[in-house]
Amino acid sequence: MGEAKRRRKAVGDLIDPGGREERLIRVEAPHFTAALVIVDGRCIKAPPILHWALGKGEGWLKAYFAQKGWEIEEGLQ
């Protein structure tokens, strides 16, 4: 699936996630703290500072954050 199509799908998920479970992951970096919304293992909502995370897989994101030394907290409501 192309990047543009993935982004359109992510925007559609924001409107109607179809009863799927949404989870939040909090990311704490030295210069910001933000949260990502994860549905079906993909990021569907992110703040402007993490806009590049939209559509990326949860595993990839966690590995990236760990490489940067950023703390993550899962299971937020």
Strand content: 25-35%
Number of spatially distinct domains? 1
Low-confidence stretches: none
Secondary-structure-based class equals alpha+beta
Strands of the widest sheet, in order across it, are 3-2-1-4
Order of helices and strands: HEEEHE
How many extended strands?
4
Mean pLDDT: 85
The biggest beta sheet is recorded as: 4 strands, antiparallel
Q: Percent helix among the residues?
A: 25-40%
Report Rg: 12 Å
Defining key terms:
alpha+beta, 77 residues, 2 helices, 34% strand
Brief account:
With 77 residues, the chain is of the alpha+beta class.
Which helices and strands occur, and which strands form pairs?
Blueprint: H1 3-15, E1 22-29, E2 32-39, E3 42-45, H2 58-68, E4 71-76
Antiparallel strand pairs: 1-2, 1-4, 2-3
Could you please describe the fold and organization of this structure?
The chain is an alpha+beta fold and 77 residues long. The chain has one domain. Helix content is 31%, strand content 34%. The protein is built from two helices and four strands, in the order H-E-E-E-H-E. The protein has a four-stranded antiparallel β-sheet. The N and C termini lie far apart (30 Å). 13% of the residues are buried. The mean pLDDT is 85.
